[in-house]
Amino acid sequence: MNDVRELLDRAAEGAGEPAFSAGAVYAKAARIRRRRRAAASAAVLAVVAAGAFTLPRTGGDEDPARTSVASAGPSASPTDPAPDKAERLAALLPADVGEIEEVSLLALIKNATPEQARTDYLGPLDGQYAFRKDGGVGYLLLTLMDREALERKTGRPADPAEDLCARIGQEPARTDCVREVLPDGRTLTTWRDSMDVEGDDSVRWGPELVGRLAQPDGSQFLVRSSTGFEGTGTQGPLLPEPPLSRQQIKELLTGPEVLPKG
Predict the structure, then answer these.
(1) Phi, psi at residue 8, to the nearest 5°?
(2) Which string of b and e fits 112-139 if b means at least 16 CB within 10 Å?
(3) pTM of the model
(4) Hey, how many other C-beta atoms are within 10 angstroms of the C-beta on 59?
(5) Which of 42, 27, 256, 9 is nearest to 153 (CA)?
(6) Burial class (CB in 10 A: 0-12, 13-18, 19+), 15
(7) Bridging pattern class, strands 208-214 and 187-193
(8) What residues are paired with 221 via a beta bridge?
(9) pLDDT in tens, 120-143
């Protein structure tokens, strides 16, 4: 079973549980430094191609399939309401990635109710997001799993030093694996997944770029940058490329904004 189905199944198992409050407050100085760094990176990495999922926003009575829309831009002023998750994510990315909206794939594909679509989150930006650009719709999934959750999922002890690229030959749909040990000891692995697999879902997933950041404490970030899906619940045609590139995935996962407060 591929990771997309596993994530949807895991979310369904936790349906109805209280939502985790991810109201992390970011210091203004840190936001300014991050925006300046992102702007500089965008200029230097202009040749990098701009380029999927855990479940929707935590709580509320809004339509679980559509919760917020935002595009990259400046942060809210001190007198404006605090930005929502889609706006905070957009502020970390170049404007050319398109319009970003937080969604629930469980609601779109499985017709889940708002209560069924609720789930616990560890990271302040964990969730599923639609990326709309040039008429197409891709998706980004960002989720943080602690060591216990990861070991429950895999059925074996978490190993931060595991070489995920060594398993690529066993997964025909996965190619172009790159493993990078970061200076702080974390390990970032990215690969391409054609999603050319058989299943009983009523959807057909497009190719995606996957990123996993293993941390020394055994926790792990997972990012799926998907070109989208066709079939039940589709919101539009596939994007020609994943919404985020490898470099953009790396910058997102290694930034402080995705970490839980404290």
Answers:
(1) -65, -40
(2) bebebbbbbbbbbbbbbbbbbbeebbbb
(3) 0.71
(4) 13
(5) 9
(6) middle
(7) antiparallel
(8) 144, 213
(9) 889 999 999 999 999 999 999 999
